[in-house]
Amino acid sequence: MVHGLRPEFRLLLLCAAPHSIAVPPEQVALLLGQVSDWPFLFSAAGAHGIRMLFFRTLKAAGYPRVPDEWRQACEHGLQTQAEENLVFTVELARLLGLLETRGIQAVPYKGPVLALQAFGNLGLRDFGDLDILVRHRDIHSVVQLMREDGYALQLPEQSRYANGAQHAQVPGQYYFDRPPSFRPVEFHTEKTLRYYPVPLDLDRLQGRLVSIRLAGQSASTFCPEDALTVLSVHGSKHLWNRLQWAADLAWLVRSNSEFSWDLAMLSAREFGAERMTLSGLALASELFVLDLPPDIAAQIKSDPVVTKLVAQALTEMFAGEFASAGIAQRAMFRVRSMGASSSGLRYLFRLMASPTEEDWESARGSRLRQMVMRPVRLIRKYGWGFSQRSAKTGAREAGDDPAHKVA
Question: Are strands 185-188 and 130-133 parallel, antiparallel or unpaired?
Fold first, then answer.
């Protein structure tokens, strides 16, 4: 368990832990008694994607020492998010039914699927969109179906898909919304998921898909062991800067009594994401005392790079504005996340040479121009990183680091 965090973060860790709503009320009350910055606490719960766990833990404990205005905020948040989660779930089931009528295999993941698969309750996980995996060869049919259903595809104006034609430019996701309600739906394919070391092969995973009930309908999704790697790649993509992503792993493993560690590690190797998965498990173990099999724990302990990745992830997760990793730190994280330096460098080069929608907008013109300008855009966006790290170090020495300030 990490130490030295300010009380607000210690409380959020307690709330995010598996089965946190069963925490003794006196333990919750003890931490709440140390909270001095209520706006920061509620803001951090939202930023880390654990509002529902946070609200429910406080409610289960009887809101000890919680001011009335913040108790009301909890009750309102519980009701509105639960209603929104249910609406998303019903919409997902409806869309999956439409896709099935067109003969399009679709695999939902994260969002309501993960809420049920890992948490066993739609009201325990925050989500604000739907993620659906389809084969890239079906994406044109998906776009037609979604447009017929009233959804609008959101892509840069210069994208040739604006006219519905297949094109060489592949976005990070095919993002749809439908006015006037704003409930985004993201379709992913083996080509949009560029942060996967090995392209995600739905045909290969076909035999391991499992059935889950969504709004009274049956849907297929990743088995828990494959979901572990999928979530680990996603967390690694974002440098694990959100507490939710580590909590997802802990809840997923603890909620599946027949979880197969052999299959989980086989899946990680098939995805080319073994170190990403080990780092995610190490992070979940560090934060939530997740018990790992001896051989996996030994593998983590024997890999000093995993220790470095976890340390950087914890910095990103808890150090707020002082921890914004620059391009140098982000590049190093990408390289280290792979099993060997050579594969890490190839992985980094592939990412750097893959223009995204932001690159299309900032460097209009040829793909070559976008590839050349991509590093420039990233430096402008994140900075080199050295100055941010220096500011962070200085803040800690001055006692102003929000992650470690004790109220």
Answer: parallel
Crossing angle between the packed helical segments 294-301 and 274-288, to the nearest 10 degrees: 100
Taking Cα atoms as reference points, which of 203, 223, 193, 13 lies closest to residue 114? 223
Q: How far apart are CA 60 and CA 38, in angstroms?
A: 19
Q: How far apart are CA 251 and CA 115, in angstroms?
A: 10
Q: Note the pTM of the prediction, 2 decimals.
A: 0.89
Instruction: Tokens for 120, please give them.
Output: 């066993």
**Amino acid of residue 124:** L
Please say whether the beta carbons of 4 and 32 come within 8 A.
no
How far is 350 from 6, CA to CA, in rounded Å?
39
Q: Are 57 and 14 in contact (CB under 8 A)?
A: yes
Tokens read off for 191: 């080509």
Residue 184 shares a structural domain with residue 272: yes
Q: Dihedral, CA atoms, 100, 106, 109, 111, nearest 10 degrees?
A: -50
Question: How many other C-beta atoms can be found within 10 angstroms of the C-beta atom of residue 3?
Answer: 6
399: left (phi over 0), alpha (psi -120 to 50) or beta: left
Same domain, 368 and 297: no
> Are 99 and 49 members of one domain?
no
Query: 131 and 32 in one domain?
Result: no
CB 144 within 8 A of CB 98: no
- Asked if the peptide bond before residue 375 counts as cis, ω within 30 degrees of 0, the response is no
Task: State how far the Cα of 241 lies from the Cα of 329, in Å rounded to an integer.
Answer: 13
**Domain region containing 60:** 7-66
Contact of 388 with 322, CB cutoff 8 Å: yes
Contact 188, 181 (CB under 8 A): no
Render pLDDT for 355-383 as a digit per residue (tens, 0 to 9): 777 777 776 667 777 777 777 777 777 78
pLDDT tens digit sequence for 11-48: 999 999 998 778 899 999 999 999 999 999 999 999 99
